[in-house]
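Researcher: Quick sanity check before group meeting.
Model: Go ahead. Protein one:
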Amino acid sequence: MRTNLEFANSWVLILLLIVPLFILLKYRKRKKQNSIFIPNLSKFRSEKTIFERLRPVCFWLRLCTIFLLIVALARPRKVHVSETLNNNKGIDIMLTVDVSLSMLAKDLDPDRLTALKKVAKNFVKNRPVDRIGLIAYAGEALSLVPLTIDRNILIQQMDALQTQTLEGDTAIGVGLATAVSHLKDSKTKSKVVILMTDGVDNDGFIKPLMAADIAKKYGIKVYTIGVGSNGLALYPTSMNPYSGEIFFEQQKVEIDEDLLKEIAQKTGGKYFRATDAQSLQDIYDQINRLEKSEINNRKHYNYTEKYRLFLIPAFIILLIELLLRGFVYKSIA
């Protein structure tokens, strides 16, 4: 919810120009008044009383009254705007991320996993009505976030993604099957897995195509993303057991594109190849366009009138001025 201050009749505020006009006229009138000075008669003059000295106050009280009345006529009011999103027509999405050691390869800047996390977080922020979950996998799979609309916890877990947190190499089938288990009972109009990997399926007890068949059975669409450049890349090959320093060597990039294409084709999805950070961003933009949610925004406006805050003081000041002029100065001008 957000709160704004506005004027219902803002055009009335142009009348405020009357205030400086009155001041200008008053000043010019005083300058034009001629005074006759007679020498040596100062002793016949009596001192001005405090009421006579305060007589100009009536003028300033009148100006305050005019100012406050004009603002009150403009109808100042606070507007409370609340917005609701109807997420009944959203999409359930499971982000399934390969966190095997090879995701530290440096052919994406600064490495594959970091580049992937940055783009995936933007993707999540741009889909406000969808339930999104997160799965990490290597030789085994771990459900980090179930389907949720809580973007904060989702982004926190994405930031925390690291390699070497799960045993084994790359079990694409296990990662996909875990995502399918989260989506199979979903009642939304569309169920999607975004499966990301940078290698070849070489671990796990579930074959990737078997997991794809299960996904197809439950109407789950799988978009597969092969992460890695063409040719050679700096791969992590060993680690110092004492310092934890990781050593890198140039190695050939190997991604089982045929397998990833077949998974996508079986389930009605699409295969993408991300060779750098920009192409990875482009891929997520394409998926964003392919899987559109029906966003139903409703805005509710609550108005709180504030003109009384100006109208009441205006009448009080006017009353004070009239009392001064009527009973103290015996004048109405």
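Researcher: Fine. The other one?
Model: Protein two, sequence then structure:
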Amino acid sequence: MTTSPVLRHPLDPEPVRSTKAGAVFALGLVALLTGPLVGGVVPASIALVLATQARREAYSSGGYLTGSAWLRRGERLAWAGLALAATAVVIAIVIGVVDFATAPTGQDFGPTVD
């Protein structure tokens, strides 16, 4: 028993990769690279918003928009960039607190002679 291949209607569009999936990946990569400098927050946020939009579009297209692997990779890179930015902020706060704690406070007057 053989099964016949699924025939597509001639007017059905060809499956194509979502352009937003490529943009999500690129923004995620930029977020990862600039995350330690805290500049990765903006591209990571944009990547996560675009990923949500691209998933909705891919779902509503009925399978004619592909690129889910690129979306997953881009989202992972964006989350990693956010994690690096958060880590950099925490490290900067800890260094600032330690520096503030070791700094002398007040004005130090020398001994006075009466």
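Researcher: One line on it for the slide.
Model: Residues 16-101 form one domain.
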